[in-house]
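Hi D.,

Good news: the full-assembly prediction came through. Inputs first.
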Amino acid sequence: MKIEVPRDKLLSNYEVYQHLAKIQDKNAWFFTVPETKTKSGKKKKRRNIDSLIDLEIITKDLSRYLVQNNQSNDTQVQSVINLVLGLNMYKLEMIEKLQILNILPRSMVLLYAIIEDCDQRFSEEECEDLLSLVNSSFPLPDKEEGADEDDAGEENEDEQMDDAEGEENGATVEEDEEAFENINGDLQHEAPGLKPAKKEEEEED
Amino acid sequence: MFQLSIISDLTRIPPKMFSLPRLVAIKQELNGKYANKVIPKLGLAIAVWDVLKVDDGMLKPGDGSIYIKVVFRCVVFKPFVGEVLTGWIESCSEEGIKVNMEFFNDIFIPKSLLFENSLYSPKDNAWVWQMDEENKLYLDVNERINFRVEEEVFNDVRPKGPDNPIVFDDDDQKENEQKKKHSTPPYALVASCQTDGMGCVSWWE
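Then the structure:
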């Protein structure tokens, strides 16, 4: 074994959760994703492979953890894109954007904890704007009962159908994913300059 | 919290997996080898993200398996120093607080990195933060807390050798059992809980 590149890219919790959801679906494990049926309407058979027991354990624990920390099957790619595009308007370090996306701070205290020297770099107004940006991209569940939820449910079903059949409705989802990767690209563009600085900091510590 | 690392490795595909498509077999082998394992000096491997390069397979005399050199990307849990994470208090002791993240449990907040004026109360089995003369805040077991990563510690854990069947010494066995209980984790995080926004999530809402 050789580690070629220790840190190729940073991943957000959203991406990790999506990846785990795919793994669960493929193996028919269904820890946090809803059960899907095969084409003939039968229950998918759970895959049990001895060598994958560790993958099963970590998938179960980690996906449960992520579900308790802002991730869900209904999270829309679009809301992630909105948030990241909005965050790009501020002079934030890449890791700070990543943490805002992961933690979704709802209070000023938490925002100050995530952003270094927040009081010197941003005015109070800007901080409030950041909080409202988080709130508008990811509304708290108890506030958006009703129409919004129905939409989310429908789209989720669409996605499941994609997984099962792989053709119909595929285009929209693919577009979304493409857009998401572009965003990821945006993040990465800024990364090279920031990463070395970050590393130096760590070494100094 | 998560990152992608590029790793190259020689995988061994045993004959029973020849019926699977090559890429599926490789991913299964890699997941079996890496998932939920700590990679020294890197972090906790979660799952294979994708396979970048697959070399031609090689055969070795006396073995029916194929050996293939592959380059792949792996999701790795490796929080950076200064990152804010959320977890649950697993246990409190005089030395500090042990935090649990469901999929990762080796996080410790030593007493020197807790809030100032914190005291351990053996009666409640909890740490108490004496905020001012009147207000006391309790860090109870199973509370959800935010903490900041301060340091990561890697320990070289050697594989356990085979038990010696010739020596039947009771003392030796007891020692071994004790060692098992206090075995050092291969990858541990030292965290702090000193600034605003840290500590119980419910305090800051």
